[in-house]
Amino acid sequence: SPVGLICRYLSPRRFSSLVQTLLFFGGLLFVSYIVFTTFVVPSADGNAGAVLARIQRSGRRPGDGYVRVVDDKGRSGPGEQGAGVRLSGEEKTRGEADMKTWFMNVVASDKISLDRSIRDARRDECKAITYDLASLPRASVIIIFTDEAWTPLLRTVHSVINRSPPELLEEVILLDDNSQREELKEKLDEYVKRFDGLVKIVRKDVRHGLIRAKLAGARVAMGEVIVFLDSHCEANHGWLEPLVARIGESPSAVVCPIIDYINSHDLGYSGDPYANSVGGFSWSMHFTWEPMSESEKARRKSPTEYMRSPTMAGGLLAANREYFFKVGGYDEEMDIWGGENLEISFRVWMCGGSIEFIPCSHVGHIFRDGHPYNMTGRGGNKDVHGTNSKRLAEVWMDDYKRMYYLHRSDLKTKDVGDLTERHKLREKLQCKPFKWFLDNIVPDKFIPDENVQAYGMLQATVDGSKICLDTLQQDEKGSYGMGVYFCQGGGSSAQLISLARDGRLRRETSCAHGVVRERDTKGTVVMRSCREKGDEWLRVGEQLRHKDSGLCLSVRGVKSGEKIIIEGCDASAPEQQWKFVQS
Ligand code: UD2
Ligand code: MN
């Protein structure tokens, strides 16, 4: 029988050697399983070495041999206590020249200690909070840079190390995005040795652009939390604790410190303890500052609590590393600069997370008027913000991408690369529609063609020629006189205007006010921020009547390129007949 055959073959000796062999291979399998799951699998999501770090932590830690500068009192010298630096003579001239090449005064920066003191920008309620450091997640601080000037870069590093509790600072990663300047090579390697292993330099031999640079930094980070900073920042007192504390409490919160203002001309640091603006966006896909919504004010129980924000500025943020990758990191195909800040904001909200500003965490940033590096992207692309934003609009904004194309109709047919992966991500995470984001996260956002009485180009026809209301390319941030111009078919964004439900005649952010002079019979139309209560306009037949003055919008005697007027209403005057047209 077969059983008998096996028994005869398996003599006791053969049997025990078989068992030994089985045990050996079983053990080998078990060991490789442990090694694989511990060291190999975590690296798949950018977690390389996290486990190793945990093992190393028991003993002496990187950075233990570096003496931090923690006492800000009694320091004196240029720039101390956050003061601006006054230059004179030849230095002043060189400093002014820096403004054209660096867009910041490097001479002034070079005069200031890398350990300079700055005033604590927190409100008292924040200073009173104590943290149990042992229970908080540790952070990798990732500073990305391309050819940054020496002192602003290193002041960023010094401020982070000086003002972070060593218990919370896993490492500082300097992600060098292919800098060409010599001093950022060996000299920098040499310099960071003083930090005793706490500062790591990662260099890229091809230019990544800031979006891929951030991703590259996050992929080598070992901390449970990652914090991104621009390379010209100064971390303020107690900046790190409230960031990691909030992430510890809510791992799907992507949090930002309050960004304090460092003047690019003299490096003066001004912090606002009571800052309570949050992030918004314009339909041309730029970041804006907005007042906190009423509902958010009502929700918050204390001034130290996080503020939910629709968007973030982009540069300074912290996230749970695993969550950051799970929710899609950044769009790898976005190039050089721009768009990624709104992309991560929309995405995080729509996919179940939140964007928050942490009022007890302050970090200064040098705001520059230009970019001291080449902004040309791959294939000679000179419009990286435009094409990055198109990627974001196509993937995340559903039908509302039309609002972006109103501003950038030239991009409608532009190839911005493959979007399949990002669409797949949205599908995989089962993210909510953009409409949900608008309704729930930015309920006050004005949508020019929704819930309005009328929308389009506001057109009058005089002597057979069509003339339209037009901003005349004036800066819409301030107030400006509304003009008229020959109608530009196809919906030129400078001519689009809405008559809102509330009777306001408005554009995205500016509202039409009637300004009456000449003895109540004639006036002009001034556009001002819609945050102030705007004037009401009534549609009477084809006329547009300014409610307060009773005067009507008119092009009588107004030529293309000039300012529009309001005058006594006359239902038969062709100059007062207005149509909203779409093209
Ligand atoms: C803001 C953000 C910035 C980023 C950008 C939109 C703040 C304070 N800053 O612009 O982080 O979100 O909006 O994309 O919110 N860099 C590289 N490689 C490049 C280009 C830049 O590493 O190809 C570095 C650069 O050295 C700097 C950082 O990226 O450290 C941000 O650049 P920036 O300071 O010129 O951008 P900023 O502050 O105008
Ligand atoms: Mn910056």
From TrEMBL:
Associated pathway: Protein modification; protein glycosylation
SUPFAM superfamilies reported for this sequence: Nucleotide-diphospho-sugar transferases (SSF53448), Ricin B-like lectins (SSF50370)
GO CC annotations on file: Golgi membrane
Keyword Transmembrane carried by entry: yes
Record-annotated membrane-spanning stretches: 18-41
Entry keyword set: Coiled coil, Disulfide bond, Glycoprotein, Glycosyltransferase, Golgi apparatus, Lectin, Manganese, Membrane, Metal-binding, Signal-anchor, Transferase, Transmembrane, Transmembrane helix
Pfam families noted in UniProt: Glycos_transf_2, Ricin_B_lectin
Enzyme Commission number(s) from the entry: 2.4.1.-
Region (Disordered): 61-90
Domain Ricin B lectin: 456-581
Keyword Glycoprotein found: yes
PANTHER family, sorted: N-ACETYLGALACTOSAMINYLTRANSFERASE, POLYPEPTIDE N-ACETYLGALACTOSAMINYLTRANSFERASE 1
Protein name in the entry: Polypeptide N-acetylgalactosaminyltransferase
Organism: Pristionchus fissidentatus
Species classification: Eukaryota, Metazoa, Ecdysozoa, Nematoda, Chromadorea
